[in-house]
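All the exercises in this workshop are built on plain-text protein records. An example says more than a description, so a record of this kind follows:
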Amino acid sequence: MKKTFLTLLMAVAAVVTVQAQQPTTTPPVNDNPNAPEISFENDVVDYGTIEYNSNGEREFKFKNTGKEPLIIQSATGSCGCTVPTPPKEPIKPGETGVIKVKYDTKRVGSFEKTITVMSNAKSGTKIIRIKGQVKADPNANQPAPNTPVPAPTGTTPK
């Protein structure tokens, strides 16, 4: 009797655990057959290897391939170093638009960041990416201007 009770208790615990792992919400999907559709030329912009503090601005071009105007509700970077700027005006069917992205190129090293674009398109949310590598600051080991240079040891300053 004790074994049966423990087996039944373990089975209930397993079912509860499996239920807790399943997502409770599903992403919104636009059921409108005429809904706008956002189609990016590229989902990834590769900066390549760039200089420290160089121009970090790039663009994601897209087209509204749906039948109704496309409204970009928000574009959010995955960190404070990635600042997207979406168009404020609706994009008419068949027209193209641009989401500008500025990456902080004062951060040395390789990077890969995401931009989450929310719109009224059929897909709702779209994730686009930037990646690249920022070279080291060439002036990182040089003294700042107006910094006194220490006198060599064994001499007296004049």
Q: What stands out?
A: The longest strand covers residues 109-119. The two ends are 99 Å apart (CA to CA).
